[in-house]
Amino acid sequence: MTLNELPIGSTARIIRVGGEGSLRCRFLDMGLIPKTAVTMQKAAPLGDPIEIHLRGYELTLRKEDAEKIIISTEEKP
């Protein structure tokens, strides 16, 4: 599942951060690091961009960029 598919109000953990070169580095600098919990806050009326909550702040991403973030909604014991 990718970050852009997460329903509003749901929480998930980042599994893998995709992208290439400077885009991937930008994601990591913004706190999108594997094992980080993210919550989908809201989406724009037409669905793009989306707003997520992570590490104590809100981050707005384009859906195109959010498709590069692989997440898991399953909690492991």
Automatic annotation (TrEMBL):
Residues 1-73 form the Ferrous iron transporter FeoA-like domain. SUPFAM superfamilies: C-terminal domain of transcriptional repressors. Keywords: Iron. InterPro entries: Fe-transptr_FeoA-like, FeoA, FeoA_core_dom, Transcriptional_repressor_C. This is Ferrous iron transport protein A.
